[in-house]
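Work Package 3 (structural annotation) set out to generate three-dimensional models for the target panel prioritized at the project kickoff. During this period the team completed the workflow that converts sequence records into discrete structure tokens, so that structures can be stored uniformly alongside our sequence database. As a representative example, we reproduce one entry of 223 residues exactly as it appears in the project archive.
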Amino acid sequence: MRWASFTRHHPSAFLLAAQLLSLALYVAFENVPGGQFLLGAFGMLILLLVVWVIIHSPAINWIAWIIAGLVVLLLLLAWLFVHPDLLTWATLLEAALYFYGAGSLITYMMEDDRVTIDELFAVGATFTLIAWGFAYLYIVCQAWSPGSFSGGTHPKEPLTFIELLFLSFANLSATGLSDIVPIASPSRVLVMLEQFAGVGYLAVVVSRLIGLTIVRHQDGGVS
């Protein structure tokens, strides 16, 4: 009963755990034969978790199902016909789903003045959704505008997903390590938008929840 209650009341915790686990899986299986298949399968699991989290939020559920369904369809078609353009469009829609999931979690966290344990998990889950969403946008930008980014371990080749995800985390957290930099106008615009999103997320959402959590502890604790 306790496990069933936890899964029902804390969907954000599972999404956050899956996102962080995927980082370890990328390290373990990125260059292993058949590893891309495993990573793709785990990506589908995360896709379902994003939809599951949206279902538990105030957002409109059918929008998430439509986007997720289109992503799966395009991925299957890209795999069957070996069509890079279909894969690019699937990646773009996947970014849209991640942003929609992030927006639904922000709405969920902002809808009242009561901070729950799941909302604290949602803070981390939302951050990862935004980071992954921009990483997918960077992939699309790189596909449509080759040479958009400079840096990485192979300067003359397109950056890998983990490299672009690293760039995304550095931008969103305002770390700015600058070992991978945008050198084309589309990629620079995306980087600026992510930097703006990161600052806005910390200033508006995270600071509000921290303030409410402090008040809640003073009044008797977080539920």
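The chain is about 75% helix and 5% strand.
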